[in-house]
Q: What sequence folds into this?
DNA sequence: CCGTTGTTTAAGCTTGAACTTATATTAGCC
DNA sequence: GGCTAATATAAGTTCAAGCTTAAACAACGG
């Protein structure tokens, strides 16, 4: 799993946080991240390439702009890797999650009841 | 969050996997990881230091050996960071988790019902 | 078709992380 | 105290990641 290597960089994590809220053009990301980290447009473009190459983001051309959209698949893998440790800090929640995955009907019933807080 | 930097290394991830199952002496880890990655005792000792320094593991002296034990706190932080992305791949499960955290009594009722699969 | 804007790519530099070898440290046994 | 085993630390090397500057490329309006 080298998705972790991708997440190892703070700039890339920040970009993912931004993309998690909504899709953005490369330029918009440059403005935000460039201001926060003080790095050039080129550097950010290179980070975007890493995210693309490792499946964390997809691109769509809109005129001259490149619109980036998050692809959560690799992060889901990371989440899965964490699974084996999760019982350390959330034993009951984890157990419940397993049960939730098991039966669709039961889950729906339960969720709807909990929904009426 | 630079817990991610710690997890960025495959050797350290492997060590954590091993420690997740049970506590081990430095030497035992060296045998397992050394064989798998083909690196020296010194290299592994340095990785163990990183894990110690960043709170991923605690040590206890037993005679001449150092027994390492996992400390999941930093990984819980990573898990928390993932929270904002989790709805992408597990929207309903996530929503349920939020609800579960909310009310203790309601959770217990629901969990016990789900427990009887 | 030329300039401009938005973006990527190329080339080179720098730094830090991970490794190795070699040395220090500590515990326990004789 | 001296020897061995278990581990950590020091010093030095190597390599890749991230950065910058500079150049290339694509889309569009004049």
A:
């Amino acid at each position: 799993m080298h998705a972790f290597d991708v997440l190892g960089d703070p700039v890339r994590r920040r970009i993912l946080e931004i993309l998690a809220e909504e899709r953005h053009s490369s330029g918009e990301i440059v403005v935000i991240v460039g201001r926060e980290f003080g790095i050039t447009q080129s550097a950010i473009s290179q980070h975007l390439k890493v995210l693309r190459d490792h499946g964390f983001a997809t691109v769509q051309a809109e005129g001259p702009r490149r619109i980036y959209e998050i692809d959560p698949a690799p992060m889901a893998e990371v989440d899965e890797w964490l699974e084996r440790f999760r019982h350390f800090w959330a034993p009951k929640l984890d157990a419940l999650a397993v049960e939730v995955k098991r039966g669709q009907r039961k889950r729906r019933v339960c969720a709807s009841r909990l929904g009426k807080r």
Q: What stands out?
A: The two ends of chain B are 39 Å apart (CA to CA). Residues 25-27, 30, 41-42, 45-46, 48-49, 63-66 of chain B lie near DNA strand D (CB under 10 Å from a C1'). Residues 3-71 of chain B form a domain with the Arc Repressor Mutant, subunit A fold (CATH 1.10.10.10). Chain B touches chain A at residues 1-2, 4-5, 7-8, 10, 13, 16-17, 20, 70, 72-73, 75-76, 78-79, 81-82, 84-86, 88-90, 92-93, 95-97, 99-103, 106-107, 110-111, 113-115, 117 (CB under 8 Å).
